Amino acid sequence: MTNEVLHRVKFVTLGCKLNFSESATIGQQLAERGIATTVKGDEEPDICVVNTCSVTSLADRKCRQHIRSLIKRHPNALVVVTGCYAQLQGKSIAEIPGVDIVLGNEQKGDVVDYIEHWLNNHKPALAVTPHKDIRTFAPSCECGDRTRYFLKVQDGCDYYCSYCTIPLARGRSRSGTIASIVDQARDVARRGGKEIVITGVNIGDFGKNTGESFINLLKALDRVEGIERYRISSIEPDLLDDEVIDWCAGSRAFMPHFHIPLQSGNDEVLRLMRRHYDRSLFARKVERIHEAMPHAFIGVDVMVGTRGELPEYFDDSLQFIGSLGVQHLHVFPYSERPGTMALRIPYIVPKAERDSRVARMMELSDRQQRQFIERFLTAERPVLFEQPPHGSKVMHGFTDNYIRVNAPYREQLVNTVTTVRLGNTINDDLSVDVAKTNN
Ligand code: SF4
Predict the structure, then answer these.
(1) CATH 3.90.550.10 fits 7-129, yes or no
(2) What gap in Å lies between CA 265 and CA 365, rounded to an integer?
(3) CATH number, domain 380-437
(4) The pTM is what?
(5) Top-level CATH class of 134-255?
(6) pLDDT digits (tens, 9 = 90+) for 191-243
(7) Is the minimum distance from the CB of 166 to ligand 1 under 6 angstroms?
(8) N or C: which end of the chain has fewer CB within 10 A?
(9) Res 1 pLDDT > 60
């Protein structure tokens, strides 16, 4: 391979929205620099980029499987591994025969330079900056599900929850500037985007390194012409200020939709997890949202079976979460992570018990979500319809308050916000068919 020809690059991205957004940005940079275009269909790649995740031990295993399988299927391709697993296990990944370049999270913004360098001299590279020294903010924005854009505004985390390796993998909290993020949002509008999901690792911490504030970011984004909808991907409860909630309620384009990680509804478990709040603070935030936006959808992350979660703590947590009146639970079973403080907690929840707790939490989630959707059956709500896969006869979209709806495919509705009347039944997948569209 030489860099005189345009190469073909294949991406394998694992993990969070942030990773997908960053992979898309690397793809754009490769195309803009005339180095490579993304493979289509079964085309043979010359370059494989694996953007890894390390959120659980299962994620680690999946990364290794993907790397090995890519090397086997494309033995002549340049193989680049980056992301959180590369940050944490860079050396052992570099030892896998067939891996050419391993880059940690500080180097994510320079992946294209490393590829270009390799194309010129074929020298392997391993570059991983220790997490405490990670400073660079690599901007990224991706058109995720063919219609909505995921815009990264912040990276890293300074919280060190006892079960989490993300601060070790992503480094310290840092953000882009409001001016640079607004520019990216304007660019999305120029490309015809209507909805932006604001993403990051701990986005309520936005501006820590720049002296700017999260609410001022929201206000500036709200003024960007052409963007009709924003959603905040996830925000820590202690950083979700009442001012932010009240402002969102009266904003032009921020949707009545919040996603807040709770992790446990028991204060002793929250303490063991080293979370930055107790459950009464969480309950106050939910109440405030409901007061300001009675029709809002609130999604909540819950981790079950963490070390130290005695059966009575779990029962207490389940009961508390059931009393909150939130709409959806994103339930994760606890997974042991090397290097975390949680490993010092002696009580381990057996796997079978962990699985049964996941099932009980999911049942609660299902019930709460159905009750919420029932309130809006036969009501009118605005929906942004997404581009369906080629040849599909059905299209999907989300209401302002995050109810998934289905409608027969009509090209003119794609990427438009349309008022619809919802049908009167809830499907098994918790979506609702549209009874009538207003255009
Ligand atoms: S807030 Fe806690 S769980 Fe979230 S990324 Fe930071 S350390 Fe991990």
Answers:
(1) no
(2) 14
(3) 2.40.50
(4) 0.90
(5) alpha beta
(6) 999 999 999 999 999 999 999 999 999 999 999 999 999 999 999 999 999 99
(7) yes
(8) C
(9) no
Ligand 1 center–CA 275 separation, angstroms: 8
**Cβ–Cβ under 8 Å, residues 6 and 34:** yes
Query: Which of 161, 205, 273 has the most ligand 1 atoms within 8 A of CB, as the residue to mutate?
Result: 161
Ligand 1 center to 259 CA (angstroms): 14
Please tell me the predicted confidence (pLDDT) of residue 2.
45
Among the atoms of ligand 1, which is closest to the Cα of residue 157? 6
CA distance 154 to 127: 22
Share the mean pLDDT of the chain: 94
277 lines ligand 1 (CB under 6 A): no
Which tokens go with 240?
């979700």
DSSP readout, 24-87? HHHHHHHHHTTSEEE--TTPPPSEEEEEE--SSHHHHHHHHHHHHHHHHH-TTSEEEEEEHHHH
Our mutation pick for probing the ligand 1 site, out of 159, 174, 240, 260, counting the most ligand atoms within 8 A of Cβ, is 159
CATH 3.40.50.12160 domain extents, the chain: 7-129
Residue 165 CB less than 6 A away from ligand 1 = no
Write out pLDDT tens, residues 97-118: 999 999 999 999 999 999 999 9
Q: Is 164 in the pocket of ligand 1 (CB under 6 A)?
A: yes
Distance set, CA 171 to CA 63, 125, 129, 387, 436 (Å): 20, 21, 9, 36, 49
What does the pLDDT look like over 353-405, one tens digit per residue? Answer: 999 999 999 999 999 999 999 999 999 999 999 999 889 999 999 999 999 99
Task: Say what the pLDDT of residue 211 is.
Answer: 96
Residues in the chain: 439
* Residue range(s) in the chain whose domain bears CATH number 3.30.750.210: 134-255
| Beta pairing class for 7-13 and 47-52 | parallel
Banded model confidence at residue 145, pLDDT cuts 50, 70, 90: low
Pocket-testing residue among 88, 174, 202, ligand 1, by greatest number of atoms within 8 A of Cβ: 202
